[in-house]
Every structure is written in C-alpha cells, then in structure tokens.
Amino acid sequence: MEKIIDENKQGESLIIEKKAGNNRKLFIESYGCQMNFSDSEIVASILSENGYNTTQDLKDADLVLVNTCSIRDKAEQTVRKRLEKYNAVKREVNPNMKVGVLGCMAERLKSKFLEEEKIVDLVVGPDAYKDLPNLLSEVDDGRDAINVILSKEETYGDIAPVRLNTNGVTAFVSITRGCDNMCTFCVVPFTRGRERSRDPQSIVEEINDLANKGYKEVTLLGQNVDSYLWYGGGLKKDFDKATDMQKATAVNFAKLLELCAQAQPKMRFRFSTSNPQDMTLDVIETMAKYQNICKYIHLPVQSGSNRILKAMNRQHTREEYFKMIDNIRRIIPDCAISQDMIAGFPTETEDDHQDTLSLMEYVKYDFGFMFAYSERPGTLAERKLEDDIPEATKKRRLQDIIQLQQEHSHYRTQQHLGKVEEVLIEKESKKSDAHWAGRNSQNTMVVFPKENYKPGDFVNVKITDCTKATLIGEPIGYSENN
Ligand code: SF4
C-alpha cells in the first residue's frame, strides 16, 4: 500500500492508503457510531483487493458507498438527503457512477431501500461486506444487488482495514459485533445481530501492525465491549455449551485489555462502548494496573429513573449504577466518565426527569451525548409503548439535561487547572494554526502552542486555563512515553 497526504473538507491533513495498479475509484462516507467508520475501513480494504482505491472526490468516483445509521429518525433523513446529492451529481457530471448503501439503515430497510430510492444499485448489511465483489459484478451486469444476511460468526478479524480519514496517530480496532441486550428503544440488535467476539490474536496482530505504522493510540470498539468473550468463536449466548477446556481458556474483556496493554506498552488504549449491566470490577482494576490504559469510561445510563430503566429493559437500577460509579471513583480516583441520556422516553413523568437530573448531580459527568427520544420502527418500545411525551416537553427536558451537563463539564475541566497532563498530539487546533490539539488520558481535548513538537508526540502540558470542554496550557517537555 502506498501512502499519500491529502486534506479533508475541514482542511485537516489526512493519510490516504492507495494500492498500485488499482484503476477504479471508490468514494465512501460514513454516518453514525465509530463502528460504522471502522466498518468502512474494512469495506475499503475488501475493495482495494478488487481494483478500487479511495477518492475524496464524489464527481470522480466509479462507486459511491454510504455507510448508514438508524439510531434516530434524523440519522436516516441525513442519508436520504445525501442520496439526493448523489442523484444530482450522477445527473449532471457522473452518469456512470454506481451507488450503494451499507450499515444499519440498509439492514433495517433491506429491499425496500431499492424500491424507495431509485438511485441505489446496491444494499449491503453490516455482516455481508465480504460479498461486495460478487454483488458489484451483478451491478456491473446491470442488475440491482442486495445481501442483508446477519451472521453468527463474522467478525472481519481476517481483514486488515485500510485506514480512512486518518491522522496517522489514533485508530479504531473493532473487537466485538452485535448486541444481545435488547434495550427497548434500540435498533442495534436488529441491524447488527447477535454478539460475537473476535479472536484476541487477530486483535493483537492488528495493534502490532498499527504500532509498526507509527500509530500511538487505539480505541477498542464494540456496541458492548464489556461482554467481550472469546472461547474459540461462536455466539456469546452459546458460551454455556462450550467445553470445559474452552471455558477454562476463555478470554474476557479484562484479559483482552491486559493483552493489548502488555503487547504495546508505549501505545495508549481506550475502549467504547461500555454497558453498566455488563461492566465488571476486573475491567476497572486492569485499567488501574496499566498506565497506558486511559483513565476514561463512556458509561451510558439513558435515564435516572428506575421505572424508566425498567421500561427500557436496562438490566440495572440507579442504585446499582451508583455502586459502579463509586467503584470506579474508589479504584481510579481521576477517571473521567461520560454518559448517553435519553429525554422524553414514553410515559416519562416530571419526577422521572428529576431522577435523571439528580443522578447527573451525583456523578457529575465529564461530558455526554444527550438526545430526545426518537421512536425506532421494529423496536419493542415502538410496538408496545405510545410515543406520548409532547415534542415541546421532550425539548425542554433535553435542554435541562444539556444545561446541567455543561455546568458539570466546566466543573470537571476546572479540576485540571494547575496540573501537568500527558497529551498525545493529534492535529492542529481548529482555532489557531499556531497551536496543537490532543487529548489527555481522561479524553479531554488540550490545546497548547506548537513550539517544536509534532503530531504523534506525547507532551507534558501545564494546564493554565479551560473552557467547558477544552483545557489550555503550556508545554513543559516530552513525556517519558514519547
Ligand atoms: S446495549 Fe442497548 S443501547 Fe446499546 S447497542 Fe445494545 S441494545 Fe442498543
């Protein structure tokens, strides 16, 4: 693979991998969670073995793929707007381009996508990307093509991703696929299937390859990383049928984290997304044991009300969640924690909403991802519960949550004032080309003067000021991990 430097729409420099001899051009864009962005790198790799290199120019593409998200109605509307854009480009400047849809919306709509969107030639679900070459030959023969079969085994562990839109410093490595939790508001179990974990050996090989290519940080990815469990392949739910030997040698998430941290002691490790009902103490203890496992946990909670948590089929109470938070604070006092929150879930009362605010007051999260409830077709909540909270009430409650989170985010950033933080430089600051930007172990962005440092350096920075979301400081030298 040959590497060239390019720029994205934001003017940030990017490393693009190209394969010599490939003469077809792939334009691929992704929406939604990091899993989708990571999957698009798998797709780019499969197609680079079939004559395609990526291009940043839609007008120049032979094949246009959009990796779609179904988590909220707005995400699907965004995709439909992009398809209109492709339609215009196809009509005006690129009549031969082929268009395909990937990801969760493709899996949710299946052949309906071909009926509803005439521009679409190809529909491929998250577990069927290895079938792309066959499907593309059908499209080349003038037929529409579709494969939305969900798999019990597929983890793409044997595919070396082609890094897309990369800064050459940080990368994502997927470790599990699917989710068995069936939260009543969520489409993921329907669009990504049952939980299965990837062979730890192939994960460590990918991490070693990234280290050899100069990457300094890896985020281990999964819809629900805490339920990672490798016992030789197969679904998580079939673990009880495993042999005694398989059970004795099984690798859980804490063990996998340890394997990664030991394999590359100078590389940083993060992980996302956790689930409070599956997170175990040994994960937190392993984080505390290794300096190169970052002190940050994304721990979605969705609501602070026990009644609503039950209606969401979240398998924990607010009290059990507080206990998890207390354990994290006891074992890793400076650990940052972030949340996902839903405002206006069906039947939510003002008291339930106050429970959410009081839970946030207890935790004082570093930051969060907060949304109003969006009914998703096919979910248990859509089938059983009426979406009965008025939009205005949803909006007001969401505003309450966002406002409180901003107060807490500022409270948390102020805790860093006067401290020295190890920062991994990722890119130029958005606000000044005289400053670098990178994150500390707690996943907070830090901005400081460039001096002679460069992206990929670990730098100790004295924090002198902060905003609600960003720390500002002065570099005082390379960290020992550089
Ligand atoms: S844990 Fe719940 S919210 Fe998260 S992906 Fe699984 S079903 Fe969806």
Give the topology:
Elements: E1 2-7, E2 13-18, E3 24-30, H1 34-48, E4 52-54, E5 63-68, H2 73-92, E6 98-102, H3 103-109, H4 112-116, E7 122-124, H5 132-140, E8 145-147, E9 170-174, E10 176-177, H6 188-192, E11 196-197, H7 200-212, E12 217-221, E13 229-230, H8 244-248, E14 251-252, H9 253-263, E15 268-272, H10 281-289, E16 296-298, H11 306-311, H12 318-331, E17 336-343, H13 350-363, E18 367-372, H14 380-384, H15 391-414, E19 420-428, E20 435-439, E21 445-449, E22 458-466, E23 470-478
Helix pairs in contact: 7-9, 9-10, 10-12, 13-15
The structure holds iron/sulfur cluster.
The site of iron/sulfur cluster has 10 residues, from helix 6.
Pfam family, one: TRAM
Function: Catalyzes the methylthiolation of N6-(dimethylallyl)adenosine (i(6)A), leading to the formation of 2-methylthio-N6-(dimethylallyl)adenosine (ms(2)i(6)A) at position 37 in tRNAs that read codons beginning with uridine.
Family: Belongs to the methylthiotransferase family. MiaB subfamily.
